[in-house]
Design brief:
It catalyses: O(6)-methyl-dGTP + H2O = O(6)-methyl-dGMP + diphosphate + H(+); N(6)-methyl-dATP + H2O = N(6)-methyl-dAMP + diphosphate + H(+); 8-oxo-dGTP + H2O = 8-oxo-dGMP + diphosphate + H(+); 2-oxo-dATP + H2O = 2-oxo-dAMP + diphosphate + H(+). One of its GO terms (cellular component) is cytoplasm. By secondary structure, this protein is mainly beta. It has two helices and ten strands. Bound molecules: the ligand Nc1[nH]c(=O)nc2c1ncn2[C@H]1C[C@H](O)[C@@H](COP(=O)(O)OP(=O)(O)OP(=O)(O)O)O1. The ligand Nc1[nH]c(=O)nc2c1ncn2[C@H]1C[C@H](O)[C@@H](COP(=O)(O)OP(=O)(O)OP(=O)(O)O)O1 binds next to strand 1 and strand 5.
């Protein structure tokens, strides 16, 4: 399983909670709306990677001391095992800067109640809403052989012993 770290800035606009996602323009999952983030670099932990990737993909700046682990999702692609990922989800408590589009991704804010589900991976509904509701869970997603639809998924509360 390749370790991946994602970072989900949250804000409130006119009393409506919003999350920052990004339209992926290149690489794995191009054309989909995803969490900002990516692979860990050698020597990096997941929180460090989440902060670095947030900066590279959106321009927002935060630090590992300012992010909280909000969940873990394992994406299993049995038909393409090399795509399988162990994903740590982080929510930053604070950040600086203004988000902007990069060559890789176009960030955009979405109200929690109006996530762009049609543009997202089909499994996102199984874990993203719960994470946004404050539930810290370890979710396992098994993709079907089309590498797109969901064959199975389950979640357990995140414990200190869950991988991150
Ligand atoms: N089943 C799935 N459900 C989901 O919601 N997001 C998924 C997913 N499978 C992959 N992703 C997302 C998470 C992350 O945003 C992205 C994979 O990480 P990366 O952006 O790192 O990939 P790339 O190879 O394009 O980029 P680099 O890490 O910069 O090399 O795909």
């Amino acid at each position: 399983m390749t370790p991946i770290a994602l970072c989900f800035p949250l804000r409130e606009r006119h009393g409506v909670p919003e999350v920052l996602l990004g339209l992926k323009k290149t690489g794995f999952g191009a054309g989909r709306m995803v969490g900002l983030g990516g692979h860990l670099e050698p020597g990096e932990n997941a929180a460090e990677a989440a902060c670095r990737e947030l900066g590279e993909e959106s321009g927002l700046v935060t630090t590992p001391d300012d992010v909280d682990l909000a969940g873990v999702v394992d994406f299993h692609f049995p038909a393409r095992p090399e795509w399988s990922m162990a994903t740590s989800l982080f929510i930053p408590r604070r950040w600086s800067g203004t988000e902007g589009e990069t060559d890789e991704i176009a960030p955009a804010w979405f109200p929690h109640a109006h996530l762009p589900v049609a543009q997202m991976w089909a499994d996102a509904e199984h874990w993203l809403h719960r994470m946004l509701a404050g539930q810290r869970q370890h979710t396992v997603v098994v993709l079907a052989d089309d590498n797109t639809t969901v064959r199975a998924t389950w979640s357990v509360p995140l414990t200190d012993r869950s991988p991150s």
